[in-house]
Amino acid sequence: MSKRIMRLIAAGENEVLDFKREVSNPNKIAKTMVSFANHKGGRLLVGVDDEKKIRGVNTDEEIYMLEKAAGFFCKPMLDIAIKEWTFGKKSILEVTVPDGSDKPYYAQDEKGKWWVHIRVKDQSLLASKVVVDVLRKQTKDDHNVISYSSKEKFLLNYLDQNDKITLKEYCAKLNLSRKRATKILVNLISMGIVRVHSTEKFDYYTLS
């Protein structure tokens, strides 16, 4: 067993590392894969449980499920790298998911619907429309300089005096449509002026 792998296990799950006891569902593993691809890449250790214990897996079965998930349940499909490691009589798999070059990446759920997921700390979360649009804009490398209207100036002044704001609050304060407010936020996030913070329930925004 590589000392590097042992250090990864000891460090625990984080924004670029996830443990899986086994791959029982290609939809669920695809969700984790695309969250890494939409972030900055990451690794899966298959055969390691949430308590950092090495359980081992049947590598042939797991490789089949992993390649199936990357090829058929991720859109665009992901080019993953898989390496087998042994620890005594137990085998685990290190799966490397690269930082995607064609964001946003979607994972198919059990009902056949496609969703964008992002990595936040040690979780894979459903992305909001603002985040999806930011990912799409980054892929297009569309970072044109924007002129500040009163709406952008209000937002920046508000965030300078307050910790954060949500999309709903921003819309209410200026009587903006969600579409207009989303476009403003996407532009400011893409320029690195505003930062989006995603949670399981909602997103909020702060100055970068």
Describe this protein's structure.
With 208 residues, this protein is of the alpha+beta class. The protein has two domains: 122 residues, Methyltransferase, Cobalt-precorrin-4 Transmethylase, Domain 2; 77 residues, Winged helix-like DNA-binding domain superfamily/Winged helix DNA-binding domain (Arc Repressor Mutant, subunit A, Orthogonal Bundle), CATH 1.10.10. 38% of the residues lie in helices and 24% in strands. It has seven helices and ten strands. The protein has a four-stranded mixed β-sheet, sandwiched between helices. Strand 6 and strand 7 form a beta hairpin. Helix 2 crosses helix 3 and helix 4 crosses helix 7. The longest helix is centred in the N-terminal third of the chain and has 14 residues. The protein is elongated and about 65 Å long. The protein starts with a helix and ends with a strand. The model has no long low-confidence stretch (mean pLDDT 95).
List low-pLDDT spans. none
| CATH domain class of the largest domain | Alpha Beta
Provide the β-strand percentage band.
Answer: 15-25%
What would the principal axes of the Cα set say about the shape? Answer: elongated
